Structure formats: C-alpha cells, structure tokens
Amino acid sequence: MADIVLDHVSKSFGKVRVIDDLSLTVQSGEFIVFLGPSGSGKSTLLRMIAGLETIDRGRLLIGGRECQTVAPGQRNVAMVFQNYALYPHMTVRENMVFGLRNIGMASDEIRRRVEEAARILEMDQLLDRRPSQLSGGQRQRVAIGRAIVKEPAAFLFDEPLSNLDAALRVRTRVELAELHHRIGTTMIYVTHDQTEAMTMADRIVVLNDCRIEQVGTPMEVYTAPASRFVAGFIGSPAMNFLPVEVINSDGQALATLDDGSTIGLPPDIAGRGRLDLGVRPENVGIVGEGGMTTGKVKVVEHLGDRTIVYVVLGDGTPVTAQTGGHSQVRAGEVVGLTFDVEGARLFGTDGLAQDQAAAI
Ligand SMILES: Nc1ncnc2c1ncn2[C@@H]1O[C@H](COP(=O)(O)OP(=O)(O)OP(=O)(O)O)[C@@H](O)[C@H]1O
C-alpha cells in the first residue's frame, strides 16, 4: 500500500502542453477514480504514474519515493489495460508467472502468489487454458490476476470494463470493489462512466480539458458540484440549468425565470444577478395546476421504475423531470412545473458554483 503524490506535474506532446502544473494526492489504500469525457487527460495521467509516459516537470511520489525518472518496472505499480494485453500463446498460469520469473523470483514464492490470486479471483479451473479459450470477462480476470501476483503498492486500471457487456460490467464492478475491500491496496481507476465512478470510488477526481475540476467523495461531487461542468457531467439524466435573475429581498433570495415566474431560494444558497439555477431532474415536479411555471412536454421515456419527461419552457429553456413509477403525462401536453430548490446550486457565467466563487 502506498500513497501517490503528483506534485505540480506538467506534460507536453510535441509543442502542445496537455497537463499543466497539476497536483493531486491519492491516500494510501484509497480507491480513486479519474472521471472525465474523452480527451480530458485521464489516461495520460495514469500512464504518467505507471511510467508509460514521461513527466516533463514536477515530481511523482509513490510511497514517499520520488519516481518520475524511475523505470516503469521499478515503480512497484501494476497496470490493468482495457484490452487485457495477455500473451495469446501462454496459458493463464504462464501469463501470471511470466513477469515474476523475469525478475528472478523463487518458484515457491511464485506458486504461492499464483494460487493466492487464483483463489481471490476464483479462477483455479482456468489456469491451464489459453486466452483464446476464455470469455471476455475471464480474460479480464486473468489480467487482474497478473496484476495481483505482483503484490504491487498500487493498482492502475485503465477503463478495464469497457469491453464487457452491460451485465458483466456490473458484476465485475462489484467484484473489483470487493477485491479492494479485501486487499486494501491503493487503486487508481480510469473511466468515463459516471456510474462506475459513483459506485466504486472512495473519491472521484473529475477531469475536464486535462485540468482537475473537483476532487471529492461520490456524494460531494453529486450534491455539491464545484462547477457547472461537474454538475452537468455527474448525474443521469443531467442536471437542469435554468437562467435566472437572483435578487435579495428582505433577506430572502428570489430567482426570477425569464417568463417572469419567481422561485424562493433556501437561505444557504448565495448569489446575486444573472445566474444559472441548477436543479436535478428528480427535484422537478410535474403538476396539472399550480406549478411555478409551465412548459410543453416534448418526449416521455418510460423506464419501468421511473419516467423521464423532457419539457421546454416558454422561453425555450429545456427542462428534464424524473418521476418515480409510471407517469400519465403525454408528449404535446402543456404542464405545470415545480422545482424543489433544497440542494439546488447557482452557477455564475464563469461556470463556478457560487459558493466556490465566493470561496476563491
Ligand atoms: N501520444 C499523444 N500524442 C499527442 N497528443 C496526445 C497523445 N496522447 C494523448 N494526447 C492528447 O492528450 C489529451 C488527453 O488525452 P487522454 O488520452 O489522456 O484523454 P482521456 O481522458 O484518457 O481520453 P479517452 O477517454 O478518450 O481515452 C488529448 O487532448 C489527447 O489528444
């Protein structure tokens, strides 16, 4: 187990600087997820930790040891790749043993480690098969097994589940979380899938455009997103952003929508002027009459346990509502909308949540 520190690191590809002065501390034993859209720098950061990309400036500390110039094989980390990267001509056992033999480990110790990994991953039956005789999920297990036998200070996972079908992805996700509970080793896991991030992470590092937008527990990034980007990226369906004018009247903050309707804001929401009010779809109610405003229903999606209703307000602002169960609302109807603004967020034109802007 080791903590991992990125200390003011920068990285360029050719003349283009992609990572600029980024700092992050991963605590020992933590399950950290790098989450962000395609091109946000997740893989580059992970590969810099693994030693597969150089670090141009700054320091990388693994378990307190300065590692930015240490060869990948000497960093005591094990990486699991999206495409498994197994040797096709070797059996499962040989795949797991190969790296250990290469460093001259005694055969007794190798046997102990392979048996232990096979037990943890329940793959004793597969040890004599070749990768071509395994399913995608089993291959992924072998790739994880090959990392486990190294007994590394940290595991680095690069989108390890993206080649698996939906059901297997969910199962493997749970198994990985269990594995982490059992062995407690530091894990850094790259994904663009927010469900994987929310379900597995101790903390999520949200990346956008190769910069850190926010670091926090799944609940922190969900309930207190630091920026409009985080608010829109985490949560499905995505958070609504309603353009409002916020004024303070007699100690009460009031948000006025463009159609003139006014919403009273709770006391802990600060802000003034032209802002975006972020409201989660589950906090938008659809009512026949007496709503805070009205809109026209465009599309209704019935998902069985819940219904998602896409509405457009008079000024063209799209609003998504999510209701439990089966809603009777139909496309084309004009409906009333209510907004539960407990837990809503205000964002400025700079994209920062207002409490963040105030804190800076
Ligand atoms: N070898 C390279 N040469 C030039 N630019 C690169 C190279 N690798 C990555 N980049 C650039 O660095 C940025 C970050 O890419 P990176 O692959 O780390 O993103 P990512 O979040 O992992 O994306 P994805 O989810 O698509 O894998 C992108 O702008 C990408 O174009």
UniProtKB/TrEMBL annotation:
Q: Which GO terms describe its molecular function?
A: ABC-type maltose transporter activity; ATP binding; ATP hydrolysis activity
The Gene Ontology CC terms held by the record are: ATP-binding cassette (ABC) transporter complex, substrate-binding subunit-containing; maltose transport complex
Q: Which Pfam families does the protein's record reference?
A: ABC_tran, TOBE_2
UniProt keyword terms in alphabetical order: ATP-binding, Nucleotide-binding, Transport
Q: Which SMART domains match?
A: AAA
Q: Which SUPFAM superfamilies does the UniProt record give?
A: MOP-like, P-loop containing nucleoside triphosphate hydrolases
Every copy of the ABC transporter domain together lies at 4-234
Family stated for the protein in its record: Belongs to the ABC transporter superfamily.
Instruction: Please give the NCBIfam families that the UniProt record associates with this protein.
Output: PRK11650.1 (NF008653)
Q: What PANTHER family does its record include?
A: MALTODEXTRIN IMPORT ATP-BINDING PROTEIN MSMX, MALTOSE_MALTODEXTRIN IMPORT ATP-BINDING PROTEIN MALK
State what protein this is by name: Carbohydrate ABC transporter ATP-binding protein (CUT1 family)
